[in-house]
Amino acid sequence: MSTEADLSGNPRRFILFTVFYNARAYYPVLAILFLDLGLTLDQFVLLNLIWATTIFLFEVPSGALADTIGRRKLLIISAGLMVLEMLCLLLAPRHGGAVLFALCISNRILSGLSEAFASGADEALAYDSLPENEHADAWDRTLAAAMRWRSAGFVIAMILGGLLYDPTILNRLLPAGFQLTTEVAHRLPVAIVLGQALICLFITLRMVEPPTEVTHVEGNTCRNAVRLTLQTARWVFTNPHTLVIIVVGLSIDSIARNLATINSSYYRLIELKEWTYGIVGASIGVLGWFVPTISQKLNNRFGTLTNLAFAAVITLICLAAISQAWPIYGLLPAMLLMTTLGFLSFTVSRALHGETDSSMRATVLSVKGLAFNLGYGLFSLGFSQLLGHFPDHPTGAALRHALVWQVPAFALFTMGLFPCAWWLWNRRCAAL
Fold first, then answer.
1. Is residue 156 within 8 Å of 23, Cβ to Cβ?
2. What pTM was estimated for this model as a whole?
3. Domain spanning 3-431 has what CATH number?
4. pLDDT digits over 168-198, tens only?
5. Is 93 exposed, middle or buried (0-12, 13-18, 19+ CB in 10 A)?
6. Which burial class, exposed, middle or buried, applies to 87 when counting CB atoms under 10 A from its CB (0-12, 13-18, 19+)?
7. Of 14, 41, 348, 419, which has fewest CB within 10 angstroms of its CB?
8. Distance of CA 428 to the CA centre of its chain
9. What is the pLDDT of residues 247-285, one digit of tens each?
């Protein structure tokens, strides 16, 4: 079999990997999963800071390693770490005190390492496996297909996760002798994701490394990775276009992703029943099926910065509506905000691939991942401090106040950011 024939299977494997890796069945109940184990909301937000910090420390080094020792190896390690992180959650004792918190911290660290190793390496391997004479168009099609199938995966995962977490409905379908306890039901979404992790490991083992993209320097792999990291980071932050794409993108991503992380706590605040969380997640997945088509049309018609401005305006409107915490109806702006994350991801990925040379593609994507997760981590830290500043009586009061305060903060930040971004972008265009 020819090398080209071998590489032609990588885009399909990338799509399968991103579906099973990202569409996790515990997502609709992520926050309450940790809370029901015995953690507080402050501790849960702190765990996400640990997760983001881990990615911050390993994101770029892992991308540089992917560009030097190979993307496939990094993806295999990432899938193995996903298996270990799920085992930590399965073994975590409910209300287990220090043991519980230690296993939850281990879960977040392993998850962060897994994300860092996968980030950039998966897209870089798939992109460089495409025909050289049609990289841009073929990548648009591949990315759109990945987003659509990921949305379909989310529909299935969200429904399963939400229904399995609440044993009430499931027990109605089971015989009397096979009734599930709440303790067992709360572990079922995690068990499903463990199965997904094993599938991811199998997929990555079947991937084929594009041989021309691996740089081998005997005895100097680590030194090469460090050198490539520094060179790439310098290029990213001195190139006006990549600088604008990353800074504007992370400003939107950090606040939207924080809400995505605590969405089940928000759902409780707006009085949704727990069994509906999976259906809500599935509905977002259905909406996500249409995002790639819309994203392609908008990115073909308007420039990158204009599309980022669209995402910022939609985010601000959604945050203002979410801050009202309307019972039931507060779900609509939350769903729109989650969908906007998909549009943002498409726009940023498309723009960065267009700006980046193949030899440092994984490293550039890792720089982007590092910046995004640093922004998310810092925002999570600030949000955690904000939660702790307000009394949580009655239950949910602290979250309600924090949601209100983040609206003017985001508005002021973006009002100062976009004029600078426009100036940098047009300055680069004028120089060209």
1. yes
2. 0.66
3. 1.20.1250.20
4. 777 787 787 777 777 888 888 999 999 999 9
5. exposed
6. middle
7. 419
8. 30
9. 999 999 999 988 887 887 888 888 888 778 778 877 887
